[in-house]
Amino acid sequence: MAERLSRRQMLAIGGAGAAGLAAAGVAGAMLRGAADEPPTELNDPSAAVPFYGTRQAGIITPAQDRLHFVAFDVVTTKREELIRLLQAWTEAAARMTAGRDAGPVGAVAGIPEAPPDDTGEAIGLPPAQLTLTIGFGASLFRDAEGRDRFGLADRVPEALAPLPRFPNDAIEPAISHGDICVQACANDPQVAVHAIRNLARIGFGVVSVRWSQLGYGRTSSTSTEQQTARNLMGFKDGTANLKAEQTAELDRHLWVGSGDGPSWMDGGSYLVTRKIRMMIETWDRTSLVEQETIIGRTKGEGAVFGQVKEFDEPDFTIRHGDGELVVPEDSHIRLAHRDFNGGARMLRRGYNFVDGSDGLGRLNAGLFFISYQRNAHRQFVPVQRQLATKDVLNEYIRHVSSGLFACPGGVRDATDHWGRALFA
Amino acid sequence: MAERLSRRQMLAIGGAGAAGLAAAGVAGAMLRGAADEPPTELNDPSAAVPFYGTRQAGIITPAQDRLHFVAFDVVTTKREELIRLLQAWTEAAARMTAGRDAGPVGAVAGIPEAPPDDTGEAIGLPPAQLTLTIGFGASLFRDAEGRDRFGLADRVPEALAPLPRFPNDAIEPAISHGDICVQACANDPQVAVHAIRNLARIGFGVVSVRWSQLGYGRTSSTSTEQQTARNLMGFKDGTANLKAEQTAELDRHLWVGSGDGPSWMDGGSYLVTRKIRMMIETWDRTSLVEQETIIGRTKGEGAVFGQVKEFDEPDFTIRHGDGELVVPEDSHIRLAHRDFNGGARMLRRGYNFVDGSDGLGRLNAGLFFISYQRNAHRQFVPVQRQLATKDVLNEYIRHVSSGLFACPGGVRDATDHWGRALFA
Asked: Are B296 and B387 a contacting pair, CB within 8 Å?
C-alpha cells in the first residue's frame, strides 16, 4: 500500500505541479470504499455482495437493478497469458465487488508513464451490490476448424454443445456467442459499466470485446423477497421463476452436480443469453384482451387466468362454460410452464433494454433474456422449442442474439482464481 | 373516471374470463400513483416534479440519474393533427410526470378492440422525478427545400439557425436533428423509457421516432445541492456548471428574454445535444499525468491545477518556476472556461452512455452532451469552436450526433399545452 501511495504521489506531482495537495486528492480518490469489510446486507442496495464462495455470486443473488454483460474473444494463442489474465481479473473482480478500485492490477510502481490502474469513473460510488459472474463458451475449447486452442479440448462439457437453431431465429453472429463472458450486475449502472470497462482494459492484448449489452432494468426476481418487475410487454415477468430460497429445487434444476460432466463444472451452472427484440409498437396497438390472452395472465395483477392473485398457482384444467380452456392452449404461460415441459425449470434474471431506435421509426427495445440451469439442452432448449413453434408472442418478438456459457463454481478465497479448475 | 373504469372492466371481462376479480386488478394497475397531489420534495428521488409552471421542468431541475432522449420526425402534413397530438402529449406528460399512467389518451370508451391507453411497464413505480421537456427543431418550420410545412415559417427564431460544422465533426445525420425532441429524465430508467415509449405510441401516424438515446448515468449536476458526478474519462464533470441557484446568471445565460426573438420563445431556452463517442480504450492506456494535463484538473479531487479543492476558483495566471503555466494553455478546462470565451456559460446536463460495442473490440461509449442556453450561437458555438480546434482531448473523442432545439416556456396549467404559443 505504501508503494501504491508513493507511486500516486509521484504521478500527481508530475501532473498537477502542486505536489502534496493534489497527491492527497488522487490517492484518496483511488480507494473507492474505505471499509475493508463492507456490509453485506442485501436489503441495502449500496452494500457489497461477497465475492468468494463455493458458488459464483450473480446467479441466485437477488437480481440487481442494472446489467452490463460482455462477451470477449480471446486474441492470444498463449495458454499462460490467458491464465495470467484470469488471475489478474479475479483480483480486480474481488476488489471492485468490494467497492474498491480495480488496481493494483497494471500498476508498475515508479513508472510515471504507466496508465492509471483504475479508470476512475466509479470513484466515490458504493459497491452497489456489484456481482461479476464468469462463463466460458464452446469456442474457447476448439476453434471453428475444430483445433484445440488452449489444451482444453478434452475438458469441454457435453452440455456446452451449441444450441440448436429454433424456428424464427434471427441470430446475428456478431452479437452472439464468445469465448468468455462476464455478467456484471449492480444497483448503479456506473458501477456495472466501470467493472466491465476495467476488465476490458486489463485484458488488452489478450482478449477483445466481442459484444456487450446494457440492461437498464431488471425483469425477473430471483428471491421471494423481491417484487416481480415488468418487461416491456408491460407484464410481470418471472412470477414462477426459480428463487434463491428453493434450495432443493436449485440443486435439481440450477446447479451442476458431480457426475453431470467434467469436474471443473461441479457446483457451476449453464448460462443462456438471448437478446429478444420486441416489436413494441405493434404490441402497443394490440388490445388489452388480446395481450392478456396471448400471455395467459392479467396485465394489472399478473394473475393467471382463472386465478385472483399473482402468485396463485395456475390451474390449467379449468374450462369456461362453453368448454374452452380458461388458460388458452397456446398462451405463453401454458407453453412455458414446467407442467408442459417435462418439469423443466430455469432461473431467469433478464433485463429490459433500449438500444436507441432502428432507423425505421421504432425503438430498438426488448428483453435481454438470461437463464441459468443445470443443463440448457434439457431445460432451455425444450421450452424454447415449444415457444418458438407455438407461441403467439412470436408475432411480436425476434431473437437476435444467442449465447451459451459454462459458469463454474465460485472462487473460494484469495488463493483461488477464475478458471483455476478448468486449467488445472 | 367512471367511464374509464367501466371500459376497463369490460376489457378485463373479455380478456380474463374472470370478470370482477381481474377487472379490479387491471383497473387498479392502470393508476400508478393513488395520490392526486404527489409529494414534490426534490430530496426524495421517487417524488414527483411539478409539470406546470412558467418554465419547463427538466432544465434547472436537479439532474436526475437517467435519461431517455428522443427526436421525432413529423410525418403528417396536417397542422391540426400536429396540434392535436401536442395537446394529447401534454395531457399524457402531465399524468406521467405525476406518476400516473399515460391514459386516458387514446381510450375509446366501450370499444374492446382498442389497445390499452398505457403500455403498463411502469405500473407500481413511483414518479421518480420524471420530467419531460419538449423542443422544436428548425426542420419543423421549413423542409429541406425551404417550404413552410405548418404555417410556422415566419416564426422560426434566428437562434435556431443550423449549427456550423466544426473541425473533426463526424456527425451521422440519421442520429441527429429532428422536428421535435423530448428529453425524459428520471431516477428510474423504466420510468423514463415508459414515458418516451408512450409518447411514441400516442403519436403513431403523426410522428415517427427518428433517433433515441439512453443515458445510464448523469454527469453534470445542475444544483449546488448535488455532488458532481464523473464522465467516462473518469473525471468529475460539470463542476463549473451553471446551477439552479444562480438566478441572476440563469437570466443572463440560460433563459430567453423577451426581445431576444419571437415571443413564443420568451422564457424558454435553446437545447444543444451532441453525442460524443469516447475512445475509452485509448484513453485508458494514457498515463495519469497525461490525462490530468489534458483536462487541467486532478482526477481524484477534481481540483483545477494549482488549487486544492474541487470548487476552488481556478487561477489561470499562475506559473511554475520555469515559467510554464500551471493550467496549461491547451488544457480542456482553460479552453472551455468562460474567461476565454467572452463570458459564455451554459447549463449542462449530460449523461454517460454505453451502446454495446462497435464491432472492433471496443465499447461504444461516451457522453451524451446536453446543454441549455439563451443562444447556442453565442454560447455553445464559440466554446465548441475553440475546443474543436485546440483541445488535445479531440484525440480521444468524436462528435457523432448533433441537435439544436428551441424549448419554449412551461405549460402553465391544464388549459395550456405544448406548442400553444408557437401555433397561436
From this structure: no
The span from the CA of A307 to the CA of A302, in Å, is 10
- Domain ranges for chain B: 1-30, 39-424
Residue A277 has pLDDT above 50, yes or no: yes
Task: Categorize the per-residue pLDDT at A33 as very low, low, confident or very high, splitting at 50, 70 and 90.
Answer: very low
**What is the structure's pLDDT at B108?**
52
Q: Residue A43: which pLDDT band, with cuts at 50, 70 and 90?
A: confident
C-alpha A263: how far from chain center: 23
- ipTM value: 0.89
CB-side neighbour CA atoms (13 Å) of B253: 24
Residue with cell 418554465: B55
A208 in Cβ contact with A235 (< 8 Å)? no
| Distant-in-sequence, close-in-space partners of B326: CB < 8 Å, separation ≥ 6 | A17, A18, B305, B306, B315, B318, B319, B320
Tally the C-alpha atoms within 13 A of residue A124's C-alpha that lie toward its C-beta.
Answer: 15
Helix/strand/coil for A369: strand
Collapse the DSSP code of B411 into the 3-class scheme (helix H, G, I; strand E, B; otherwise coil) and give the result: coil
What does the pLDDT read at residue A16?
Answer: 31
When the pLDDT of each residue in chain A is averaged and rounded to a whole number, the result is: 89
The Cα A292–Cα A311 span in angstroms is: 17
Tell me the three cell numbers of residue B171: 456527425
Closest to A158 (Cα-Cα) out of A251, A76, A262, A258: A262
Do residue A11 and residue B213 have CB atoms under 8 angstroms apart?
Answer: no
pLDDT of residue A41: 52
- Looking at the partner chain, which of B190, B285, B289 has a beta carbon nearest the beta carbon of A217? B190
Q: How many CA atoms are closer than 13 Å to the CA of A246, on its beta-carbon side?
A: 16
pTM: 0.90
- How many Cα atoms are found within 13 Å in the side-chain-facing hemisphere of B268? 29
pLDDT digits (tens, 9 = 90+) for B284-336: 999 999 999 999 999 989 999 999 999 999 999 999 999 999 999 999 999 99
A332-355 tens-digit pLDDT: 999 999 999 999 999 999 999 999
Cα separation, B397 vs B375, in Å, equals: 25
The tally of CA atoms less than 13 A away on the side-chain side of residue A49 is: 25
What single-letter amino acid sits at A9?
Q
Q: Which of residues 115-174 of B touch A (CB under 8 A)?
A: 115-116, 118-124, 174
Of the candidates A179, A10, A225, A4, which has an alpha carbon nearest to the alpha carbon of residue A100?
A4
Closest CA to A79 of A424, A415, A413, A404: A424
The contacts of residue B71 (CB under 8 Å, 6+ apart) are B137, B177, B178, B179, B180, B181, B209, B210, B211, B212, B403
Residue B237, phi then psi, degrees to nearest 5: -130, 130
CA distance A58 to A407: 11
> For residue A106, is it left (φ>0), alpha (ψ between -120 and 50) or beta?
left
In tens, the pLDDT along B183-232 reads: 999 999 999 999 999 999 999 999 999 999 999 999 989 999 999 999 99
Crossing angle between the packed helical segments A189-202 and A79-97, to the nearest 10 degrees: 150
Nearest chain B residue to A326 by CA distance is B17
Q: Which of residues 299-358 of A touch B (CB under 8 A)?
A: 299-303, 305-308, 320, 326, 352, 354-357
The torsion region of residue A64 among left (phi > 0), alpha (psi -120 to 50) and beta comes to: beta
A27:B300 CB<8 A: yes
Residues of B in contact with A228 (CB under 8 A): none
**For residues A379-398, average pLDDT:** 96
Calculated CA dihedral for residues B135, B140, B141, B142, nearest 10 degrees? 150
